[in-house]
């Protein structure tokens, strides 16, 4: 018998806010996190794209980047916020460590830390600054979570996959609580130049705040970003036993492969269509019951068109669609987790956030894009993610009940 899974805590460190609430408020206000790259000199590194969405950590974090690397510090900080938001204290005698697990993703891990060490003799801590499971493992150590331990590394779908994996651990009874999410920081010469070489990044360097343009006909690529986000998932029974009301439900999840090409999605969007269909089936939700879609919407020409094709195949009437990367940039393996936080906030606040820079609709992306913050009745919302390798993921969230 499947157990009901609920969300009880949120945390985020994004390019538009140092907490989940700050990020949400900035999102509704249309505040962009884009600007010139400051983490290194993009001219010296010969980068075509010289802009990014850089995150600002709060003054105090649970652990410093000198011990774990920047990407892990972002994710660990978000996890600490989410745990507190859920009303947990890992030092409480009632904290059942073996029933608390972690599922925190990344796409690439500590690339800047690797670059910084090239040509030098690595220190004894070097390996512990770039491993892809570092965030998940350090969260388990710092917050005494001794249950299932996962670390999805499925490119830009990883954050959504991590949340979906956490749902399965609780649903099956292997855990009562899961700290889930994603973290990413590859703002380094190789990180940016690698996507540069693929012509994936926007080169609208003179107006960074207008560079990420999901579904807009003038989009020319994504703005690279960094960040971390966490959601505390819990069985409904466990949450109610400790007197905590859920802030949302996790109704279903799915993943699929395009099985075609490592970077180019199929024109018929078959893989993503199957993923969305399976996610809705898993949630026992009809397409007509979906009130909102938080789209992957990277602002790449082919990617946005591919996603629009899938949505139009699934829905007779596509529900309101938001692409939040217009403000946060593309945070790669963290994006599915950050957007899961935003999807939960949409359900919690009954408010749909805007898609920035949507000024000239693309006829090849014929979906109802939300370009201004609006109040709405949202009972079911769909978060979509996709990644290189042709991997897709969806998480279906519901309003608290």
From TrEMBL:
Single GO BP term: fatty acid biosynthetic process
Record PROSITE patterns: KS3_1, KS3_2
GO molecular function, a single term: 3-oxoacyl-[acyl-carrier-protein] synthase activity
UniProtKB keywords: Isoprene biosynthesis, Transferase
SUPFAM superfamilies, sorted: Thiolase-like
Domain called Ketosynthase family 3 (KS3): residue spans: 2-399
Domain of life: Archaea
Keyword Translocase carried by entry: no
Tagged with keyword Transferase: yes
Family the UniProt entry places it in: Belongs to the thiolase-like superfamily. Beta-ketoacyl-ACP synthases family.
Name recorded for this polypeptide: Beta-ketoacyl-[acyl-carrier-protein] synthase family protein
Classification of source organism: Archaea, Methanobacteriati, Methanobacteriota, Stenosarchaea group, Halobacteria
């Amino acid at each position: 018998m499947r157990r009901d899974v609920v969300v009880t805590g949120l945390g985020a460190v994004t390019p538009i806010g140092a907490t989940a609430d700050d990020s949400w408020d900035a999102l509704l206000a249309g505040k962009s996190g884009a600007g010139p790259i400051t983490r290194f000199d993009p001219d010296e590194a010969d980068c075509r794209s010289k802009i990014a969405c850089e995150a600002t950590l709060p003054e105090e974090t649970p652990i410093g980047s000198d011990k774990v690397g920047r990407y892990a510090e972002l994710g660990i900080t978000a996890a600490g916020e989410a745990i507190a938001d859920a009303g947990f204290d890992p030092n409480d005698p009632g904290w059942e460590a073996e029933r608390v697990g972690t599922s925190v993703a990344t796409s690439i891990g500590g690339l800047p830390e690797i670059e910084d060490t090239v040509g030098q003799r690595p220190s004894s801590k070097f390996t512990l600054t770039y491993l892809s499971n570092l965030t998940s493992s350090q969260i388990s150590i710092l917050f005494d979570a001794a249950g299932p331990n996962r670390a999805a590394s499925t490119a830009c779908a990883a954050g959504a996959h991590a949340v979906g994996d956490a749902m399965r651990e609780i649903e099956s009874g292997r855990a009562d609580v899961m700290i889930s999410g994603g973290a990413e920081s590859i703002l380094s010469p190789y990180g940016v130049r690698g996507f540069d070489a693929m012509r994936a990044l926007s080169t609208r360097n003179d107006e960074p705040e207008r560079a990420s343009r999901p579904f807009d006909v003038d989009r020319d690529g994504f703005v690279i970003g960094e960040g971390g986000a966490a959601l505390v998932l819990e069985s409904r029974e466990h949450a109610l036993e400790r007197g905590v009301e859920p802030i949302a439900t996790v109704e279903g999840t799915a993943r699929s492969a395009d099985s075609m090409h490592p970077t180019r999605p199929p024109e018929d969007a078959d893989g993503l269509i199957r993923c969305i269909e399976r996610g809705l089936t898993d949630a026992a939700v009809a397409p007509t019951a979906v009130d909102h879609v938080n789209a992957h919407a990277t602002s790449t020409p082919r990617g946005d068109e591919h996603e629009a094709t899938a949505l139009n195949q699934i829905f007779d009437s596509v529900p309101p669609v938001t692409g939040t990367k217009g403000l946060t940039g593309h945070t790669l393996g963290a994006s599915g987790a950050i957007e899961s936080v935003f999807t939960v906030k949409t359900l919690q606040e009954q408010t749909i956030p805007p898609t920035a820079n949507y000024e000239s609709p693309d006829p090849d992306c014929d979906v109802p894009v939300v370009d201004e913050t609006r109040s709405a009745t949202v009972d079911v919302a769909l978060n979509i993610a996709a990644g290189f390798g042709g991997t897709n993921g969806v998480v279906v969230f519901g309003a608290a009940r």
